[in-house]
């Protein structure tokens, strides 16, 4: 961080629960795993309270929807999946004082237009807690049905193409479900420059108007309500330029995907910085990307934390006086 002159890192949790089936498939274990992970995240943040902000892990694999019986054995005596989701949220935000929540999206995850997320959207908007979306398509998920059982995805397609696709699918489902119509002040951060949305929105809107019932939906306006980061898996200033043109300068945040650059540690931070510097943005726009946009997005959350005098305060008081100049990056931690 010091080498790259980064003042604050936002730590996004890895791994997600889906990679640990023993936890993911059992509600009680999923809840306990999230609480333990979030306790650890809070401890890391507290130990470096002027440098880190933490994002929480939540259990989302057991949402059945209102009025539907849980099919798990003995479920009649267990908590509903929505109850577990919100219990984990309250523990993360109220007890651990974390400053965001992470939802992992992909073909094996709960779709974000599921009614079980409604209580989460409501609380996140009320509490000023941003939602970080990160794709989680696994490597074993095949590129073609014909390849099922034959080694999974080939040529890293699950990651290089699958992840930006899955992010885009999640964004579309949220917009088409009217989430931003009901919660216009909800903050949702998409990794990897907003996936495919900045590049294919006109195509999506045209086909939606042709074939979907879009009455009452402001598709383009709602698509622009997402935030995105600058993590591009390499030097890609044109991607950042496109994100700036679509989401506008106030919605683009500096992100690196550190430490997923295992082959060349530090390279993602360098290429993300290079992409911003070479994208043709004016200095005032780059200043927004480096940190100002983040502090504006976090303003309600930080003010509420101070008002409630939360026990795990992190660096709220310090940041409050430096938010216009502090450079922020989001990254992953395990």
Commentary on this structure:
- The chain is of the alpha/beta class.
- The chain has a single domain, classed as TIM Barrel, CATH 3.20.20.140.
- The chain has 13 helices and eight strands.
- It has an eight-stranded parallel sheet with strand order 7-6-5-4-3-2-1-8.
- Strand 2, helix 3 and strand 3 form a beta-alpha-beta unit.
- Helix 10 crosses helix 11.
- The longest helix is centred in the last third of the chain and has 26 residues.
- It is globular and about 50 Å long.
- The two termini are 17 Å apart.
Task: List the keywords.
single chain, 334 residues, alpha/beta, TIM Barrel, 8-stranded parallel beta sheet, 13 helices, 8 strands
Ordered list of secondary-structure elements with their pairings:
Elements: E1 8-13, H1 21-24, H2 27-47, E2 52-57, H3 81-95, E3 100-105, H4 118-127, E4 131-135, H5 157-160, H6 162-176, H7 179-182, E5 188-190, H8 197-211, H9 219-223, E6 227-229, H10 237-247, E7 252-253, H11 267-277, H12 283-308, H13 316-320, E8 328-333
Parallel strand pairs: 1-2, 1-8, 2-3, 3-4, 4-5, 5-6, 6-7
Helix pairs in contact: 2-3, 10-11
What is the gist of this entry?
By secondary structure, the protein is of the alpha/beta class. 44% of the residues lie in helices and 11% in strands. The protein starts with 7 loop residues before the first strand and ends with a strand.
How are strands sequenced across the largest beta sheet? 7-6-5-4-3-2-1-8
Name the beta content range.
5-15%
The total domain count is 1
The CATH topology assignment is TIM Barrel
**Helix/strand order:** EHHEHEHEHHHEHHEHEHHHE
Number of strands: 8
For CATH, the homologous superfamily is named as Metal-dependent hydrolases
Give the distance, in angstroms, between the N- and C-terminal Cα atoms. 17 Å
**Radius of gyration from the alpha-carbon trace, in angstroms:** 19 Å
Overall mean confidence score, pLDDT: 88
- Which class best fits the helix and strand makeup? alpha/beta
Q: What general outline do the C-alpha atoms trace?
A: globular
* Share of helical residues: 40-55%
Number of discrete helical segments: 13
At CATH level 2, the architecture is: Alpha-Beta Barrel
Identify low-pLDDT runs.
65-77, 311-324
The biggest sheet amounts to: 8 strands, parallel
